[in-house]
Design a protein that fits this description.
The protein has 316 residues and is α/β, with parallel strands linked by helices. Helices cover 32% and strands 20% of the residues. A 6-stranded mixed beta sheet has the order 6-7-8-9-11-10. Strands 2-1-3-4-5 form a 5-stranded parallel beta sheet, covered by helices on one side. A two-stranded antiparallel sheet has the order 12-13. Helix 2 packs antiparallel against helix 4 and helix 3 packs antiparallel against helix 4. The structure holds manganese (II) ion (MN).
Length: 316
């Protein structure tokens, strides 16, 4: 059961020391929602900090206040009145141990289908295009007028999670919200350039290599490709250059789903996408301890996988 925006408002107002937490390998949506909460709570005179397991990708450095985020676990040596999780389907998706927040007041705001309502106070809307869309609706509900800085954060999150309004999660409401955000004076094409059109030549060459590896599992009618740890050194690119490639693979017609595997020494991380309405990847990935959205989900397994006969095979 969801709490109300009024209850969330009251919880924030009566908390003084607040820690905002986003998911691992942060994207536009978790950053946009965390940063806009940070700016809002600072305006209220709160003591606020922001924690992520991993640093933000460099192409998102345009986002306001992004230099204030921390990846220092020492933040948890202190106690806070409130721990706010934004865009985190589960605690494990932050890479934090559940112990860290045991017995604490937790606010959970999210749109992942796999969210388990792990908060003390929860607001999960799986129909929202993004957590940023929920945050916008929250600000509207409490009568807070967003400024340009917050609008930049929220629009980046919406553009990121909808890949520029093309995912099935894009509703008329989503575009209406984007339109309201643009009215603050921000430029959608500038944000779009940062979020989507951000590739280097070496980065695109690596995209080409991964596209050339594409295989189809004809039994399951699934297209897949993979990324190796050594690819980044071989092509002299940062890992964040491949952000968005799993969504790009989802352009393939006539397959049930696509998978992009990241193979490391003893580990495989899978990013799944589908365009089909009758497939629930969140449930499927849940079978392997992962989760996400119906049409975009992932999981990680401790498994050694190697290249074999032009495809992938489990080693041993
Ligand atoms: Mn999201």
């Amino acid at each position: 059961m969801n709490n109300t925006f009024t209850e969330i408002d009251q919880l924030l107002l009566r908390s003084q020391r607040i820690l905002l937490i986003g998911h691992q390998r942060p994207d536009e949506d978790t950053l946009g929602s965390v940063l806009s909460f940070y700016i809002y709570l600072k305006l209220l005179g709160k003591e606020v900090k922001m924690y992520f397991n991993d640093p933000a990708p460099s192409y998102l450095f345009f986002m306001p206040e992004i230099d204030q985020i921390s990846t220092d676990q020492q933040l948890f040596a202190e106690r806070y009145d409130l721990y706010v999780f934004l865009d985190c389907g589960s605690i494990s998706n932050t890479r934090l141990s559940e112990v860290v927040i045991q017995g604490q007041t937790v606010l959970n705001i999210d749109h992942h289908a796999s969210n388990t309502n792990y908060g003390t106070v929860n607001y999960v809307n799986t129909k929202a295009s993004s957590t940023c869309e929920i945050v916008y609706n929250f600000f509207m509900a409490i009568g807070f007028k967003v400024d340009k800085k917050i609008a930049t954060c929220l629009l980046a999150g919406i553009l990121g999670d909808t890949s520029g309004f093309i995912h099935s999660t894009t509703q008329a409401e989503t575009i209406k919200i984007a339109s309201e955000l643009i009215k603050t004076g921000i430029k959608i094409h500038q944000i779009f350039n940062f979020v989507v059109r951000n590739k280097t030549i070496d980065g695109l060459r690596l995209w080409g290599e991964i596209l050339s590896r594409l295989r189809v599992n004809t039994e399951l009618n699934i297209a897949y490709s993979w990324i190796k740890d050594t690819d980044f050194a071989d092509f002299r690119v940062q890992e964040d250059e491949l952000d968005g490639i799993a969504n790009f693979l989802n352009a393939i017609v006539d397959v049930n789903a696509t998978a992009l595997f990241r193979i490391s020494d003893q580990r495989i991380k899978a990013s799944w996408r589908t365009k089909r309405d009758d497939i629930d990847l969140s449930k499927f990935c849940g079978l392997f301890g992962g989760g996400g959205h119906k049409k975009a989900s992932g999981f990680t397994l401790d498994l050694k996988v190697v290249e074999q006969d032009g495809g992938l095979a489990v080693a041993g």
